[in-house]
Specification:
This protein has 2 domains: 166 residues, D-Maltodextrin-Binding Protein, domain 2, CATH 3.40.190.10; 136 residues, 3-Layer(aba) Sandwich (D-Maltodextrin-Binding Protein, domain 2), CATH 3.40.190. 40% of the residues lie in helices and 20% in strands. The chain contains 12 helices and 10 strands. The longest helix is centred in the N-terminal third of the chain and has 21 residues. It starts with a helix and ends in a 13-residue tail after the last helix.
Length: 329
């Protein structure tokens, strides 16, 4: 009897150990400290682990932002992460910042996180009224490795002033403080979609203005970067000092996954994260989750594929997913 009990205990231990080993482990990339992606994706990973712990383990890793995320996912160093459409496009085609990497087709898009715009701002009492006025001025372009840095550089190139500014690469947390302390003249970063919390907060004590591209400058930025769209940011009542609309660029942020993730894991991950009640919980912690959706319109234009498991999920939610870009590996 004692031998039987021992065997049963040992057998149970083996079953438990086997179940633990069977759980698929995935690394999910986030963003830099001070940015919105870091707390948002971290909260998402916690939710996934809480609801899917019997099948998967999601290990959260901070990153330098969109460029870092897309590169790591395409190389299989991250299993899943968020990335700007600009970096997704460049990685898929092996152009721009990903030219030396070469075209990489080892990842797929699984969701549209949200639309963003690029915000370029100055203190309201600054003599800078246009992009041409920035020549010789200190312009912060955000930390390298972030999608915001890429977008800021693209805007400055389109405006024809990239070689004339005194560029800085302060991170998200330091940028607004530096503008308020007049250590920099111009602040550039991604808006979600039209606001940057740190900048909005700064405007309470030190009003700020958004700088507008001219029609010609805006057209040049988009011609060189076909993944952008023209947008006019309306006056934001929460930004004290903003007294006029500002022409800028808009772009999608997508959720991507490496081919190393199983189809079931991609489907289950979306089913948990995009479930309306769960999105409400996540959005209470991090607003980036509010707009998670299955809008892949721009991908059809750029010919970048959607993961079949993701297409299955979004179709079940009633989304009309473009069939021509649903593609496995």
């Amino acid at each position: 009897m004692k031998l039987l009990s021992t065997l049963l205990v040992a057998g149970s231990a083996l079953v438990i150990a086997g179940a633990a080993q069977a759980a698929e482990s995935y690394r999910i990339g986030g963003g830099p400290a001070g940015g919105g992606w870091h707390p948002a994706v971290s909260a998402g990973a916690q939710l996934l682990n809480a609801e899917l712990s019997d099948k998967y383990k999601f290990n959260y890793s901070p990153s330098n932002g969109s460029v870092d995320n897309v590169r790591r996912v395409s190389l299989g160093k991250f299993d899943t992460a968020w990335g700007h459409i600009g970096q997704v496009f460049q990685a898929w085609n092996g152009v721009g910042l990903f030219k030396e990497d070469g075209a990489n087709h080892d990842f797929r898009v699984i969701a549209n996180v949200r639309k963003q715009s690029q915000i370029v701002a100055v203190l309201a009492d600054s003599p800078i009224k246009s992009f041409s006025d920035m020549k010789g001025k200190i312009v912060n372009l955000l930390n390298k490795g972030s999608g915001s840095n890429v977008n800021c550089n693209n805007i400055m190139i389109g405006a024809g002033i990239a070689d004339t500014i005194d560029a800085r690469n302060l991170g998200f947390s330091a940028s607004a403080r530096a503008l308020g302390d007049r250590q920099i003249d111009v602040y550039c970063s991604a808006g979600a979609p039209f606001l940057i919390p740190a900048l909005t907060q700064l405007s309470i004590s030190k009003p700020v203005r958004y700088i507008s591209l001219t029609d010609e400058e805006q057209a040049r930025v988009i011609k060189t970067n076909p993944f952008y769209a023209a947008i006019t940011i309306p006056v934001q009542k929460d930004v004290r000092g903003m007294d006029a609309p500002a022409k800028s660029i808009a772009y999608d942020v997508f959720w991507i996954a490496h081919k190393g993730m199983s189809d079931e894991a991609v489907y289950d991950m979306l089913k948990v994260a995009a479930e309306p009640a769960n999105l409400k919980k996540l959005a209470a912690t991090a607003a980036y989750w509010k707009t998670l959706n299955g809008d892949f319109t721009n991908l059809a234009v750029l010919d970048i594929p959607i993961h079949p498991a993701a297409a299955k999920y979004w179709k079940e939610r009633g989304v009309d997913v473009p069939a021509k870009i649903v593609q496995g590996y």
